[in-house]
Specification:
The complex is a heterodimer of chains A (881) and B (113).
Chain A (H helix, E strand, L loop, with lengths): L2 H13 L1 H25 L4 H12 L2 H12 L2 H18 L1 H30 L10 E7 L10 H10 L3 E16 L2 E10 L3 H5 L5 E2 L14 E4 L1 H8 L9 E4 L2 E8 L15 E3 L16 E6 L5 H18 L1 H4 L3 E6 H6 L3 H32 L1 H9 L4 H37 L2 H5 L11 H28 L11 H41 L10 E7 L8 H16 L4 E7 L10 E4 L11 E8 L3 H5 L3 E4 L13 E5 H7 L9 E2 L10 E7 L14 E5 L7 E8 L3 H13 L6 E7 H6 L2 H38 L1 H9 L4 H33 L12 H27 L3 H7 L1
Parallel strand pairs in A: 3-8, 5-7, 14-19, 16-18
Antiparallel strand pairs in A: 1-9, 1-10, 2-3, 2-6, 2-9, 4-7, 6-7, 11-20, 11-21, 12-20, 13-14, 15-18, 16-19, 17-18
Helix pairs in contact in A: 1-2, 2-3, 5-15, 6-13, 6-15, 6-17, 7-10, 13-17, 13-18, 13-24, 15-17, 18-24, 18-26, 18-27, 24-27, 25-28, 26-27
Chain B lengths: L10 H12 L2 E2 H11 L8 H14 L2 E7 L5 E7 L1 H31 L1
Antiparallel strand pairs in B: 1-3, 2-3
Helix pairs in contact in B: 1-4
The chains are: A alpha+beta (881), B alpha+beta (113).
Chain lengths: 881, 113
Amino acid sequence: MSIFGRCRRKLAVLLRREQFGGELDEEMEFHCEQTARELEAQGLSREEARYAAMRQFGNTTRLRERSHEVMGFRWETVAQDVRFAWRQMRRSPGFALTAVLMLALGMGASVAIFGFVDAALIQPLPYAQPNRLVAVDESEAVFPRSNLSRYDYEDWQRMNDTLASLDVYNGAGYLLQMGPVTEPVPAARVSAGFFRTLGVQPMLGRDFRAGEDQPGQPKIVLLPYGTWKARFGGRRDVIGQQVSLSGDEYTIVGVLPRSFSFAPRANAEFWVPLLDRNGCEARRSCHNLDGVARLKPGVTEQAALANLKNVAARLAAEYPGSNKGQGASVEPLTELIVGKVRPILLTLLAGAGLLLLIACVNVASLLLVRAEKRRREIAVRGALGATPARLVRQFVTEGLLLAVAGCAGGVFVAGGLMALLTKMVPKAMAEGMPFLSAVGLNAHTLLFAAGVALLAAGLLAAIPALRMQLKDLHEGLGEGARGTAGRLWRRLGANLVVVELAVAVVLLAGAGLLGKSLYRLLHVDLGFDATHLATAYVMATGTGYAKPEQQMNLYREIERRVGALPGVTGVAITSDLPIQCDCDTDWIRIPGKPFHGEHNEVLDRDVSPGYLGLLRAKLLEGRMLTDEDDAQHPNVTIINESLAKKYFPGEDALGKQIGNTDLKPDSMREVVGVVADIREGALDDPPWPAEYKPIYHEPETNFSVVARTSGSAGALLPEMMKAMRGISPNPGVYGEVTMEEQASGSPTAMLHRFSTWLVGGFAAMALLLCVVGLYGVVAYSVSQRTREIGIRMALGAERAAVHRLILKEAGWLTGIGIVAGLGCAVSAALLMKSLLFGVAAWDASTLAAVALILGGSALAASYLPARRAARVNPVEALRAE
Amino acid sequence: MANKGDLLPGTLDLLILQTLKRAPLHGYGIAQSIKRVSDDALTVEEGSLYPALQRLLLQGWVKAEWKITETNRRARFYTLTPAGRKQLGLEISKFEQMMAAIGRVLADAEEAG
């Protein structure tokens, strides 16, 4: 018989359910009558015969049900179960609401975090065959990944035989002139094949052609979609038009598609070919480019790395002065883009998962308590003929209904949470995370939500079902059975609470450690006074600032104008602001010390004379820079403590000479002062050796302005910008921010803050759920033991003793939970070590605080039921039974 | 609970199909017929009969239609379908195989005894 035919018949029955029921009734009625008639013929009275026939026929309802079971779809009874479960929940809305809310929160949190994990770690980069793309760079002892120099790039491109293509990019800034407005814009310079390597084609116009990136070629530019829309009104006739960048006319040749983004240079508003070699690119020893390459088919990353290392070694032999010790680095492009956020995302996902676990366990234990309360009902239904399977199914249905409702709520929570979290990421950071735009409710997250719901449903269904198997159903009818069943539940419920407590410890400890890391990070010794400092960037690349004298005049003009603002106590110029990055480095060599061509990498800061004083850096010995330290006087330098320790160990650095690797006479400078380390790089990076050289010796076109005020630095910012914008010709000024914001808003601090708040939130929820769970278990235990407590008290137990009895039980559970949790917490903290700063995974004070908080909360949660137990009136307790 | 008239499991369908082979019958008629033919040795409980009939209907082995009986009552008559006839053959051979198997076991037990 075909399944199709059976289904058709079943469907027919379902559609004509009334008729089917009627026909069955009529058929049974007929059967009954016939039997009665026969019995009558055997001599019974009419009445007697009818009763006998009915007796013989038995339970008609049951018969009807069995026929229905044959004819009906299984889900017809399922629908009954669901209706019943729904009625049960309507009867205790408090329980249902609590359970659904808990599940919705747990699921919402984990689905939301998964949304980020999916967008960042699972979905591929928006390029052709992204898994064949690698980030290619040079490497050296202190920088595992350092920039490529342009000459090295050109040689690597020619000499490698593992890459289908190798291209480079670097950041650039131009002064964009559109009509009367001049403003600084971020841009990127790339080699001609850059977009072809990524597999991106312009949506309008054309790509750069091979060779168009060479010096002397015409100036052309590609617009990203955002620039095209915002600055050119999305007009299709922009192709062929000119745009003025830092005084040069560039011809627009194409527009990149909307889907294009390149995280390392996400803020670039213009993409131009490399073209002429800038000052840095004229030297092989100056590294300013990053590479991106497509591996040849069949070539692995390791093979490419080996090949490039070989190339680098050949270049090192050929150009020992610039290339000694320069190796190669190859890693997946994905790693470059999401490598930093991976540990954080995985930590958060784990945290959310744990929260979900607690929520599920809590709801499951609530279900258990309810199952216990409904023991009588179940026993009655069992006695009336409900099979154990059907009863179990009833509980499973209730669990499923909760899970479905919780999941539906969870999807809403997740949607809201994802939108909220995405908005919370600061714009500057969001630009480096193009995947954020892919975060949201999509097929992946919904699938994950469904999976989570299924798991939760399984757990919620399994726990009560398991418990039903554990005990004889009929036992519920007997009064005396109460004690054993209660104990059984208590054991199961208690185990669940221990799990909850342990998980809560892990989350609390994680949050505590992250919080402490954040605190340490924000209170790390900066080496200067960051309060009352306003900062901004200046880009003087336009006409009028080509000559060093013009640049120096600009510095003085800025210092004069900003210094005249009310409240300002000092203004200084620097090539790089602190707390940015350990970049902009130089190689130094100390005459008289052994030198074998190694690269002594130190941070190179060109600063105005007042800069270090303005920062309130601590002068350890010697003197600060003065106005006299200009091109007319011998070159001098101030070094930081790290440099002094590393390159002048055990000697007095003052008066010593430092030069470039070739010790050219014009590069030699005398150390005139030593300052305590100023934090130049990320907050969690160890300090680097650094030099502070007078900017008047080597003027720069891109620099930063720092002003100290007696008032609020934030209030000074707009005034300062206005003052600088009034200078003619107009230099580009942008990126104004206070130094304190600079520190607390740095990517490192943001990432730490993000994870701390989220894990902290999870932990707080976990604590709450846990306390509710413990309260439930103890309260239930007390209600079950009312009679026992009554007897104890009747036999002379003191109220205090009863109190102790209950608290002891709660204390045991809490103790076991906390101890187990502490063990897990340390292992969990070891896993997220990369996120910790200045704190060990086994930080005793954090763990002790967690134990104390949880222990205290648990005590409070069990105090109420314990008090209720101690108030039991023995007479009433015994009479009630 | 074991009554003398209890059927071997799985034989009810066989008995119903075999009974219907002779003529279409209503439920009561089927029960009576089985009881009569087996000399009261086999009784079919109503509680099993009707679910079994529904099952057979569902499989398409019998079909049902409402007719008027000799006593002028409306009753549902079940008729064997061609598929049911085929199934009956199968059930019979299955049953015979089982009987033979049981017989062998019994014979063996007697010898041993």
